[in-house]
Specification:
alpha+beta; 200 residues; four-stranded mixed sheet
Amino acid sequence: MMNEYNYGDSVKDAYEFFYKNFCDVYVEAVKPIMYGKDDSQRHASKNVLYTCIDRGLKLLHPMMPFITEELYQRLPHPDFNKSESICIAPFPTDDHFINNEIEEKAELLFDIVHKINATQTQFNLKGKKPRICLYSKDKSLTEFFYNQSLFIVSLTNGGQLSVTNDKDDKSIKGWFVNVVNATTDVYLDITVDNSKEVNY
């Protein structure tokens, strides 16, 4: 987009990445890891944080030259990735981080988080931490959901999270259900009073 002088779309995409994806999602999601005791996970998370900030500042530099230079100088650069100034640092051009399968799964996680947060807002559940159960008939997805349970709970401020392949699971009978897509549902352990009007 920058090569095409499409400045407006370039600014929009940079904003979407840095503010909505990186700050709103990733920074919040890794907080439990950073406060945890697993040094390998903390180290990996720090590397991702550094890479996102470093490349994000380089992406923003043509649009915000002065503030990005100031922030770039404050980054703890490793020797192999250090430039005297962001003005002469290599601009991000590689695409080896792109993985369509991971992106599709990430989008599914974002949809799940959105459904849970919307339901908690709808029924005024702030601070109540309802239990969550994710259903999918795809066993590979339930395994994926289980591995990402910390991510989901962190971004929803929910309670205990479980997964199931059984839609008739008696442990979630009577729970509020939200359909995410054709293969995935979200169950929340809340009691809905049908006698009261729900405002959408």
